[in-house]
What we know:
The chain has 179 residues and is α+β, with helices and mostly antiparallel strands. The protein has 4 helices and 4 strands. Helix content is 43%, strand content 8%.
Amino acid sequence: xxxxxxxxxxxxxxxxxxxxxxxxxxEGSDTVRHCxxxxxxxxxxxxxxxxxxxxxxxxxxxxxxxxxxxRKDGTIITKDCGFKASPWVYTLRAVTGAVGLAVIxxxxxxxxxxxxxxxxxxxxxxxxxxxxxxxxxxxxxKDPEARxxxxxxxxxxxxEIAALYERYADDPSQLEDRS
Length: 179
């Protein structure tokens, strides 16, 4: 027999306005934290049972700040929803993260040839590609905190480029791309 999903007040919950404040920066517990931006308590419905979340909505008449995850079918995930990821999912996530980190490190780690250093042109190209990456990430990112982090990383790379030009001030032709 197919599973019948009934819409209740929890699943009918609508977000009128997204708050730009970061959950991770709020003080409190995993269930409720205080937002200094809007001066309200923010309730994490995903860390409550369905009954607790429904009671909260009833007592506040649906006017509250919340954090939750909604499935594609419209239902909100709660602590007792029955979803338990298999250990293989966590292992797969860890392996994927490790491989991703290794690829990023391989792309942005300078390569040294023997006892000598790599070419200044190559170093300049690597730094320019980092700036392009941060610019692309900044175009897509909406979270102000993440944008600040990307801007700070990009600023550091510009500093590295300036230092590179200072090192080769006597012979800037070593930094020119002749191709």
